[in-house]
Amino acid sequence: MITVRALTKRYGGVLAVDGLSFDVEPGMVTGFLGPNGAGKSTTMRMILGLDRPTSGQALVNGRAFATLTEPLREVGALLDPGAVHPGRTGRSHLRVAARANGVSARRVDEVIDQVGLGRAAGRRIKGYSLGMRQRLGIAAALLADPRVLLFDEPMNGLDLDGIRWIRGLLRRLADEGHTVLVSSHLLSEMQQTADRLVVIGRGRMIADATTDDILRGLGQLRVRVRSAQPDALLARLQERGLAARRVEANELEVEDSTAEAVGEVANSFHIPLHHLSDVPPSLEHAYLELTGNSVDYHGRPAERATTPEEAL
Ligand SMILES: Nc1ncnc2c1ncn2[C@@H]1O[C@H](COP(=O)(O)OP(=O)(O)OP(=O)(O)O)[C@@H](O)[C@H]1O
């Protein structure tokens, strides 16, 4: 369990984290989502005792990291997969970490298996791909079998296989009862991975709820409708004050409405429909609504955010 209360970090004139309070519960994957520079890494560093809060608290299992007697047995983290000795092999890197923390050599082989590093464990780290470095970093986080795990942008730079693998690992860890906090600016990834989301922007809390609630509460409902009489349907819907527009030759989209409402209009004018469905709101839509005022640098409209398909 992670408990964050009124957590604040100021670097000179920059308020990196501004009064954040949230809990990260065991048994689920909590996504920590926010645009670049939102304060995710700074928050994680404070939870891990690597940065001192200006005010407020970040507790692991009810205690500040610095006061944990066996910290690596309570909390593991992947922060910067580049921060390893490049001349060592993966296995020797893990053995050094194991020895320093009273972890058995047998456990080193277990985590090598668990992250699928396999034969690469005997090679020097300087020859590792980014995906292999991420796996090694995750192996190090799992080494002392801690109940609380923090992963800072673990999907960064990974291919689809790597992303799927991490998604599966996070799910398994949560199902085993671990407390899992994973940061990302990839909305699509969090939509598929996280049970709960803590969304921040410019160091401030924007939303803290289940992923489903965030999608339901913030995404405007839209309806897709197809008919062989699109002109007539468009005119009737607009007469009723509905925000309908043509999206394809025979297909309309209606903003902020429901399939029932659109179906009733069509039925009352005897316009046959070939398709009628609510469009589920995407996290991307909700996220842009949530963080719209909290990004430092807006792209021009043409530089739209990455869609889930593009991100993969
Ligand atoms: N050591 C530091 N000194 C000064 N400013 C810092 C320091 N570390 C972070 N910041 C600033 O604090 C803010 C939050 O940064 P942080 O890295 O925590 O954001 P983030 O959400 O992790 O972003 P990203 O997704 O880009 O990693 C940024 O404005 C950043 O420039």
Low-pLDDT windows of residues: 297-312
Which small-molecule ligands are present, each listed once? Answer: adenosine-5'-triphosphate
On the 0-100 scale, what is the average pLDDT? 87
Structural class, by secondary structure, is alpha/beta
CATH superfamily of the largest domain: P-loop containing nucleotide triphosphate hydrolases
**What is the H/E order?**
EEEHEEHEHHHEHEHEEHEHEEHEHH
| Percent in helix | 25-40%
Number of individual domains: 2
The number of helices is: 12
Strand content: 25-35%
Using the coordinates shown, work out and report the CATH topology of the largest domain: Rossmann fold
Q: Label the overall shape.
A: elongated
List the helices and strands and how they pair.
Layout: E1 2-11, E2 14-24, E3 28-33, H1 40-47, E4 55-60, E5 63-64, H2 71-74, E6 75-78, H3 90-100, H4 105-114, H5 130-142, E7 148-152, H6 160-175, E8 179-184, H7 187-193, E9 196-201, E10 204-210, H8 211-218, E11 222-226, H9 230-239, E12 243-248, E13 251-255, H10 259-268, E14 275-279, H11 283-291, H12 308-311
Parallel strand pairs: 3-8, 3-9, 6-7, 7-8
Antiparallel strand pairs: 1-2, 1-4, 4-5, 9-10, 11-13, 11-14, 12-13
Helix pairs in contact: 3-4, 4-5, 8-11
Give me a quick take on this structure.
With 312 residues, this protein is α/β, with parallel strands linked by helices. It has helices spanning 40-47, 71-74, 90-100, 105-114, 130-142, 160-175, 187-193, 211-218, 230-239, 259-268, 283-291, 308-311, and strands spanning 2-11, 14-24, 28-33, 55-60, 63-64, 75-78, 148-152, 179-184, 196-201, 204-210, 222-226, 243-248, 251-255, 275-279. Mean pLDDT is 87; it is low at 297-312.
